Amino acid sequence: MIGGGIAGVAAAANLAPHGEVTLLEMEASLAFHTTGRSAALFTINYGGPGSRPLSHASQGFFNAPPEGSTDAPLLHDRGNLWVAKPDQMDHLDEIAREGVASGAGSQTVSPQEAVALAPMLRMEKLGGGIYEPSAKDIDVAGLHQAFVRILRRHDGQIETTSPATSIVPVGSGWRVTTLKSEIDCGAVINAAGAWGDRVAEMAGVQPIGLSAMRRTAFMVPGSAEISRAPMVANVDHDYYFRPDGVQLLCSLAEEIPDEPSDVRPRMEDVALAIERINEVTNLSIRTVNSQWTGLRTFAPDREIVIGEEPEAPGFFWLVGQGGTGIMTSPAYGSLIASLVTGSELAPELRSAGVDPEVTSPNRFRR
């Protein structure tokens, strides 16, 4: 398993009961990059035709994690409120249709109802909203640790500060060389996020054409009075914000292409987000408590990629999660385990309508 973010540990936890699993992470700690910088929300009304069924199929794990994997609930009530300016109502209608199709339980709300849900909003700036009451905050660190616990329970190995330096086919399997060891294995799972194409090239596999997109988030002072307000997101992805204790987590919701790296915030992105949020709220943000930037990785069709590379048996892709990687991790961990072991899909995947062909890398090789 190459990559110690949420994708890598989810897949490793699901594969560990079936055999020996070694997870390789290039950094000194797991979840150093995107996973460790995510403020994820579990929301059904988000993503494409491949990821939405995976969200549905992940609900059981979130609601009832395996015994001993967590010390606290993984989900906490929040709600998600999409808002639109008067000239953005067409986009709001599109989100409403998607919500109905996905069974998200979304509700169309008036400007008055939106302000009742999120009192910091300025009514004169609103054309309307879509509210998804079932959306919940995800304890990202708790979820990541749950998968790590499951992996260790089944004697899975974790090697940090161990970037792969060579991946070559050997017999019917693969030999992966790191700075510390040489590992012969039957399958390689590429869960390297923004580095996914680089890992593929190392293995002699044609890249998919992944794009790494930077996104900046920051914390500003909030208050106890609005601590239970929903997440508020603009339909054109101009910004989002949500309470985090007595702070507010804010973002420009930008997608700016960047190279796989330890990306850092740009002050101009933070300033633009503050300007946009102040325009539509009465928050009057002036102080930033902390800030960070992560990379969200997309395939060319912006759909998640899960499955065996048709041109390299035993090499599996688990990349391109975009903004859905945290909330779909229980389901795609189960899916990749089924594909690697050749076993039947779990009942929760089948009942949610998960179709492995939709997310297969075969679509890029035809």
Verbal overview:
- The model has no long low-confidence stretch (mean pLDDT 95).
- The protein folds into two domains: 6-72 and 139-210 and 300-364, 3-Layer(bba) Sandwich (FAD/NAD(P)-binding domain); 80-133 and 212-295, D-Amino Acid Oxidase, Chain A, domain 2.
- A hairpin with a 6-residue loop joins strand 19 and strand 20 (315-319).
- It has helices at residues 6-15, 51-63, 89-102, 111-117, 140-153, 196-202, 267-280, 329-341, 347-351, 356-359; strands spanning 22-24, 41-42, 75-77, 80-84, 107-109, 128-132, 136-138, 157-159, 164-170, 173-178, 182-185, 188-190, 211-221, 231-234, 240-244, 247-251, 256-258, 290-298, 305-308, 315-319.
- The protein has 366 residues and is of the alpha+beta class.
- 28% of the residues lie in helices and 25% in strands.
List the main descriptive attributes of the protein structure presented here:
366 residues; alpha+beta; FAD/NAD(P)-binding domain; D-Amino Acid Oxidase, Chain A, domain 2; 2 domains; nine-stranded mixed beta sheet; three-stranded antiparallel beta sheet; 10 helices; globular
